[in-house]
Amino acid sequence: GEFSGLNAPRTFWPWLKKTRSLRPDVALDFQGLLRSALIGKVSGAREFWGMSDGREGSRLFYRRTAKVDRRAHAVDRYLKLAEAFGARVPDQLRFPLPTGDPLPRFDPFPPFVLLHPFARGNRKSLRRSVVEKFCEAFEPVRIVIVGKSTRQISVPENCVNLLNQTTLLQLIWLIRAARFVVSVDSGPMHIAAAVTSQLLSIHTWSDPRRVGPYNSEAWIWKNGQLLRAGEITPTTKLKRGRAFRDADVKAIVDLVGEIPEAPKS
Predict the structure, then answer these.
(1) Using one digit for the tens of pLDDT, what is the confidence trace for 70-97?
(2) How many alpha carbons fall within 13 Å on the CB side of residue 123?
């Protein structure tokens, strides 16, 4: 984080001063961790709301607490907090996102599969051998790799490596242009869930019942099993997590199916 290492003292005090000057009427803690609770407290908000499943002692800082089901999906828990505060939640939720920015010199044809293989947590990320196997298994279909990572990967000719080369708006454009999106559990996966149902979210150790794609038509991979997100409820029994292996790639190829040559309309 921005306050880690030797840089922490130099960056912390200006941040603290700026945050204390905010003085909002109300602060809502949707993260429910000690760090987010401290930020809310330091802001000097007259009212500070949090959720009943807050961790790391965060609930000690709240003035008001919204009762939530800790087994429920994160989006549903966040909506409960917003409702408790007084916001009106419509029956049909919309997640409006911009159309995004096209990439210079990138042609959306021939059609491609977008792969987002790496996340901040190493246990969430795919191994390099899996990424290489993924590209090989889909050949000659074009695979476009996106995200941020310091990992060095070797990919065949049908792969376009855009790691560390896209803005957020360019990423959104690529998600919209892709025939199918395959992503580990991450922020870009949730963006994709708001944009398309042609999505597979890979969950190694994370729980898709709580943090999977909030799109009933999207697909979920968990411990070698493929499920529609709409088939999973807070009480669904799931096996313990495991890493995504080279041998699991074939099922993804079968799921995505044949990519037609015609451009996406």
Answers:
(1) 889 999 999 999 999 999 988 888 888 9
(2) 6
- Walk me through the domains of the chain, giving residue ranges and CATH numbers: 5-85 (3.40.50.2000), 112-256 (3.40.50.2000)
Q: Is the previous residue joined to 140 through a cis bond, with omega within 30 degrees of 0?
A: yes
State the first-to-last Cα distance of the chain, in angstroms, to the nearest integer: 41
The Cα-based distances of 132 to 93, 106, 138, 220, 224 in angstroms read 37, 22, 10, 21, 19
Q: What does the alpha-carbon distance between residue 149 and residue 163 come to, in Å, rounded to a whole number?
A: 7
The model carries a pTM of 0.84
How many of the other CB atoms lie within 10 Å of CB of 203? Answer: 22
pLDDT tens-digit map of 186-206: 999 999 999 999 999 999 999
Q: How many residues does the chain have?
A: 265
